[in-house]
Specification:
Layout (H helix, E strand, L loop, with lengths): L7 H8 L3 E3 L5 E6 L8 H13 L5 E3 L5 E7 L3 H9 L16 E2 L12 H14 L12 E4 L13 E10 L12 H5 L5 E4 L2 E4 L21 E10 L2 E2 L3 E2 L2 E2 L7 H18 L6 H8 L1 H9 L2 H4 L1 H6 L11
Parallel strand pairs: 5-6, 6-7
Antiparallel strand pairs: 1-2, 2-4, 3-4, 7-10, 8-9, 10-13, 11-12
Helix pairs in contact: 6-8
Bound molecules: iron/sulfur cluster (3 copies).
Length: about 325
């Protein structure tokens, strides 16, 4: 086995920059942030060139939409970073901080109810970059899904957003048809004609919007765009399914504010080493929800950020 020359301190330092030690060697994998899983052709070329120039030619894709270039010698790390920066690419995504955002392809997907790439880019700017220096008790993962099909499993993230289309049913236009086309279109079996009038069971309806425009009598012509938010999910050594907030947010800004409040709450009230799901469990979901729906955390934003907390967080990868 080759003699390793990179010290543990140096290994730790470059890990924070997104360079992960290739076990048993002095080489590293560079983790490149794709913002939301979407990169340009020029960026792809740049990554391919960098893999040949600095690494062993291999490029791997992580489950959270980052790209890793393997086999980079320690002394080539800075050169590698400068090379990829020419195409606007950065390395990182490790540690007890807000992690790279994961997004589904809702922008182009036929089921997409929101522009997931645009929203996740905003989340990247505001929270991945904006909170980069803000230490948290552990890692904090955010995912954006375009519809209730949940392809990126938003509810298994610390915070997950799901696009919604809340059907606007006009009961004055409903004729209570024997064969209701809305009922037929609903994949959740939430819509049903009862006593001559369509009823949508709100406990079953997942706001997929598939029924909109299916009534020939114009009783269901439109829907309101919304954002469902799940908090406290995780999938790893331990598993927790995120719980949805009672409110469905109808403004993007409001949804983004909830993310910020969740990060602030986790920083202020989370214990070093615990995941957000454990913080929620300890504080109680209703307590956390109340704080996320009020403005106190945002009003104390600077105070929470300036506090000396979680100097050594709990994340090990
Ligand atoms: S979650 Fe919905 S919008 Fe996103 S990729 Fe899956 S089906 Fe498409
Ligand atoms: S919603 Fe439309 S299709 Fe369904 S019962 Fe009412 S009028 Fe008929
Ligand atoms: S929004 Fe989706 S789940 Fe709700 S009633 Fe319409 S089709 Fe059914």
């Amino acid at each position: 086995m080759a003699t390793l020359t990179v010290s543990k301190e140096e290994e730790k330092r470059v890990k924070a920059l997104g360079f992960l030690s290739n076990k048993g060697t002095d080489n590293f994998s560079a983790r490149l942030i794709t913002v939301n899983g979407k990169i340009t052709a020029a960026q792809q070329k740049c990554i391919a060139e960098a893999a040949e120039k600095f690494g062993n030619g291999n490029i791997t894709f992580t489950t959270r939409l980052t790209v890793e270039v393997q086999g980079i010698p320690f002394d080539k790390i800075e050169e590698f970073r400068a090379f990829v920066a020419k195409e606007g690419l950065m390395t990182g995504g490790t540690g007890s901080i807000v992690r790279p955002v994961v997004s589904c392809k809702g922008t182009t997907c036929q089921y997409g109810l929101i522009d997931t790439f645009a929203l996740s880019e905003k989340i990247h700017e505001r929270f991945f970059l904006g909170y980069h220096e803000v230490k948290l008790p552990h890692k904090f993962k955010i995912a954006v899904g375009g519809c209730p099909n949940n392809c990126v499993k938003p509810n298994l993230n610390d915070i997950g957003i799901i696009g919604q289309r809340i059907p606007n049913f006009d009961e004055d236009e409903c004729n209570g048809c024997k064969k209701c086309s809305v009922e037929k279109a609903c994949p959740m079996k939430a819509a049903k004609v009862v006593d001559g009038l369509l009823e949508i069971n709100k406990d079953v309806c997942n706001n997929c919007g598939r029924c909109i425009g299916t009534c020939h009598f114009d009783a269901l012509e439109s829907g309101t765009t919304g954002y469902k938010i799940y908090i406290g999910g995780r999938w790893g050594k331990s598993i927790a399914i995120g719980k949805e907030l009672d409110k469905i947010f109808t403004s993007e800004e409001e949804a983004l504010d909830v993310i910020e409040k969740a990060i602030l709450l986790y920083r202020e009230q989370g214990k070093t080493g615990e995941r957000f799901s454990q913080t929620i469990e300890r504080l109680g979901f209703e307590n956390v929800q109340k704080q996320l729906l009020s403005n106190d955390l945002l009003e104390r934003r600077q105070e929470i950020i300036d506090a000396s907390l979680h100097v050594t967080g709990g994340a090990t990868c």
